[in-house]
Automatic annotation (TrEMBL):
Taxonomic lineage of the native organism: Bacteria, Bacillati, Actinomycetota, Actinomycetes, Kitasatosporales
Domain of life from the UniProt record: Bacteria
InterPro entries cross-referenced by the UniProt entry: Acyl_CoA_acyltransferase, GNAT_dom
Protein name: GNAT family N-acetyltransferase
Database matches in PROSITE patterns: GNAT
Domain N-acetyltransferase: 29-190
Amino acid sequence: MTTIAVTTWSLEQTAPTDLLSAAAPEGDVRIVRSEVPSPEFSRFLYASVGGDILWTDRLSWSYARWLEHLERPGVETWVAYDRGTPAGYVELEAQDDAVVEIVYFGLIPAFRGRRIGGHLLSYGTARAWDLADRWAGLSPTKRVWLHTCSKDGEHAMDNYQRRGFKLFDTKVEEETDAVAPGPWPGAFPV
């Protein structure tokens, strides 16, 4: 079993004014909140966006586990649509001390390179900052954070920094090397 060194970077914004929004892409691109908890749809987004970059931690989740997660107060999924087709998503999760994590963010491979990612990240980050406006009992957001790693797309870190996120932690760990699972077995060539 071979291992690879994986670098994980944690980035944050500490004020809404830190957000540097990207321009909206041309065409019919809309971002909509997925308000009805749907394990099927959320798993589709997770597997389709992360299948080529080794997102595997949620692939074994049961329907009940997905539903439990999605129904938690302060968990939101915002989906980018290009001409009515899901192109990517951002998942937000309220945490203690008025902190919101951008837990997952990305685009389905066919939609990368179309300037949708910067727009989706900008929109999702703005929704992290105003999350308490939609959830009774949550304190106004004081910090938004996320992490990315060396397995993510080559433009991920640049996109986060251009949106105003600042690096606050870096870790390097050995992980077992694995083949990207794709959104279904065999979706990507080995």
